[in-house]
Amino acid sequence: MSRLKTLFLRYQEVLLIVLSTKLFLLGVSLIANDQSLTQLIPLWVRWDGYRYTDIAQRWYVTEGDAARNITWFPLYPALIKAATALIGDVYMWAVLLAVLFSFIASILLYELVLLDHDRKTAWLSVW
Question: Which regions in the chain score pLDDT beneath 50?
């Protein structure tokens, strides 16, 4: 448990930046769209998200417009499909996994910038 606590303390500023940004955007979306959270989540699945959720629901098909999905990598849709099989809605899991991956990407960016710069520069790059 001390290892997890050490990691959390090391990255708490980074996680706080990402979490506060996500919560701010959620609040703005709730106010601007005047909808409930369950109605709002499908609105966040845009651009590539349609392809990934389609793959998660039907996997790769060889006919029709969905045959173009063969060019998309399978890891993200496979994780969405696995999470959806446990509990819930495909769009909710697509958004939650994207948020989780943004946390991971922010930590990796922070560490990458720390290789060549000071902590403040790394923090600002995440911001």
Answer: none
